[in-house]
Amino acid sequence: MDTRTKNVSLEDLQRIVGEEHAWEATPDDAVDGVGSSFVAEPGSVEETSELLRFAAEEGLAVSPRGGGTKASLGNPPREVDLVLSTVRMDEVIEHVPGDQVVRVQAGIKLEDLQERLGGSDQMLGIDPPETKSGATVGGVVAANSSGPRRHRYGTIRDLIIGITVVLSDGTVAKAGGKVVKNVAGYDLSKLFTGSLGTLGVIAECNFRLHPRPEAARTVAVELASTQAAGEAARAVLHAQLVPSAVELHWGEDERLLTVLIEGIPPGVEAQSDTAYYLLRGFGEVRTLTQEEAGSSGPSGAGDEVALKIGAPPAELTGVLDSVLGACSRRRVTPLISGHAGIGVTYVSLSGGDDEAYVQVVEELREIWTRRGGSVVVRSAPPSFKERVEAWGPMGSRLELTRRVKEKFDPRGVMNPGRFAGGI
Amino acid sequence: MEREALIRTMQSILGPEGVISEREQLRSYECDGLMNYRVIPELVVLPETAAQVQAIVRVCYDEGIPFVARGSGTGLSGGALPVESGVLIVLSRMRKILEVDIPNQRVVVEPGVINMWVSNEVAEDGYYYAPDPASQIVSSIGGNLAENSGGVHCLKYGFTTNHVMGAEIVLPDGSMVNIGGGKAPDAPGYELLGAFVGSEGTLGIATKITLRIVRKPEAVRTLLAAFKDTEEAGGAVSGIIGAGIVPAAIEMMDALCIEAVESAVQPGFPQAGAILIVELDGPAAEVENQFEQTLKICEENDASEIRVAEDDAERALFWKGRKAAFAAMGRISNDYYVQDSVVPRTELGKVLKKISDLGEEYGMRIANVFHAGDGNLHPLVLYDNNVPGEAEKAEKLAGDIVFTCLEHGGSLTGEHGIGEDKKKYMPKMFTTDDLNVMQLLRCAFDPHQICNPGKIFPTPRLCGERPGPFRMHPVQRAGLAENF
């Protein structure tokens, strides 16, 4: 790979994106601890294409970036020469409220988009915690970020209906369209969902929208045991309730299962009552204040090791027991939260050393991979990542996954090494 | 491989019962639900297990024989049209429901399982399988997966792609891969399952499919409203959506369609310029409130008559009329040509007007039945095949309708697929680069292009092979070269 000619100057990049939109990278521009040489902010699809074509000719490794909130997701890249930031591409291209569809440039911040859509009483049905720290829409798609409301609206792959991407050789291609129902051609928008910049740069996205609910209420039950957590979640899941979110919060002081009900006021009232009666058998039930309800969400900042466990939802008790057991044996303190109705559990570890964390992760990975799930390291200090691969085993789809990567990015210059399977 | 040798090889995998080679018998597989295209395959094979599918595909791969997978053959775009000198792999003997997992809300099935069976299987537990194409009593889950089938209730509940959670697939090289998490969410790696669903059988064959099932709603309310014309009915649709209501379904039929349905299945629909069927479901308090609102909106848009289904029987009658629409065309026309284009909902009025103008211009009748909530049109161009030139004229008119929809920001197809039928229109919707990039995916899954070749793309892009009947270059066979 050393045959690449990397005699690129800042001026070369500035010629493409304009003088003020390219600079020499600072330590803040590092991707999971790996420093870059340059940062460039193209202002259009055309500039993105030109920039990537240039990078390809010069053999630069490119790391696309939106809000930069997920720089620690995945494995550290093998190399980064150019950080390609999409933040200048932050326009709403088209929003016709009557169609409940929006077309945006990828660099628009999700928070800004939601505010804009709120003006028409609509929303994009995705609420990742990174919304508040400046996540862009393109970044949310690339990282497949999600939040509590995925219980009702699904993940971003269920909401995206069209995409424009730029491949590493500068080719611009679109798939899907701006209608919700569409089966013409391959669904590349789903393929790019969660691809973490390894297949190309996401330049534009189209989404289906939902009406913004008029009212909301969160009903919570105090949990005495992991058994109660599993049973309460199951009871909610199998009732005829239509909650927007079913969340677990399992900390030192408070252990709750919360059920978020949204909709029109009479519906919210009736469903909250139902939730109340359902949950009462599992512990003390109360309605959370707006402030309490809003403060939830997975932690995972700082130098801790943050994990995401994907497991069949009915195994919630088993997931909790496995985490608590693995941690207590190594004197590690876990903070647990999750989307209890979906089977996603977030765990952040503190109070131990790398060796203890590694053992916890390996033990959990062994258990949950065997049962068809996964344990992904969401963020961790570099010393930890040197010892544990972030994504875990890929099973039988590794070879196919590599073939897809080779076709879309044959020279392997897009975010090399960050993704699952060493891609 | 010689034909006789191929037959013997397949018989050794499947037994004599599992191989059809007599020309007269092969004929019954020459087309799918779209009968305009017919090709007699070299051979039809009927595997009963995933291992047999894998063995069949391996033979095809080694010998460079193209193959096409087929479920119940109800597709409307020629997606399961056989390939001449190719093998047709019919999956209708793989009909086992392998697992019902109520706690995780999953059902695992073989590809030949009929859509409706899944809902029947879990009905007693209070669940159902949400995607409900009109063909659901005969179409298979494997076929639904290949086409990303929709249905009248997908406005609220999504399409097949939102309900398939995992699949075991046989790739065109005979290897077996599991994609999607199945019961667990967020499997690491690319969203290969999302790319596979709706790929119209061109990326491989699903041999085991994990489906999500949905809890039956607490309440369901259905109304039928009659209007002077489609424009007024369209006004009601906009009003309902604009009020922030997400109905389970909103279907529209125009006068010609009502006439046909009435004479075919006598649902007792009112005589009107257009009727809407609107269904709301969900928690009772919410449904009751929004149903009242929906009734009011229909009245405000001058509905001449509104009927509310009093019970399941009456609701079933409304839907019987709607779901019989295509078949009913036989009552008013010898032949018809159906389109499946989609337009943004706010363009519906303009597009319907243009479609009616086109009908007048061509001097042909067009019946409209469509999913008004999501702008998915099904204009039925009526013609008589016995009149020379009419079929061609109908197809041309249907093409003009498609172009009109594209001009208004729509899509070629909402649920029927591109298949053989609409691939010629793909360059109207996508650029050469768009199509080439899509085919990169094809090349990753099927580098030799033996899996349902010739479908979707008007100009198959080579991944290292020459066009036409498949012949592998010896250098490629040795693994020494693969040019894109």
Describe this structure in words.
The complex is a heterodimer of chains A (423) and B (484). In chain A, 30% of the residues lie in helices and 24% in strands. Chain A has 14 helices and 19 strands. Chain A has helices at 10-17, 45-58, 110-118, 137-143, 150-153, 156-159, 188-192, 226-237, 265-279, 290-294, 316-329, 354-370, 382-385, 398-408; strands spanning 22-24, 38-40, 62-65, 82-85, 92-96, 101-105, 122-123, 160-166, 172-176, 201-208, 210-211, 215-222, 245-250, 255-263, 285-288, 305-310, 333-339, 344-350, 374-379. An 8-stranded antiparallel beta sheet of chain A has the order 15-12-14-13-17-18-16-19. A 5-stranded antiparallel beta sheet of chain A has the order 5-6-10-8-9. With 484 residues, chain B is of the alpha+beta class. Chain B is 34% helix and 18% strand. Chain B contains 17 helices and 18 strands. Chain B has a 7-stranded antiparallel beta sheet with strand order 15-12-14-13-17-18-16, with helices on both faces. Chain B has a 5-stranded antiparallel beta sheet with strand order 5-6-10-8-9. A 4-stranded mixed beta sheet of chain B has the order 1-2-4-3. In chain B, a hairpin with a 7-residue loop joins strand 17 (366-371) and strand 18. In chain B, helix 1 (3-14) runs antiparallel to helix 3, helix 8 packs antiparallel against helix 10 (284-300) and helix 13 runs antiparallel to helix 14. Chain B is globular and about 70 Å long.
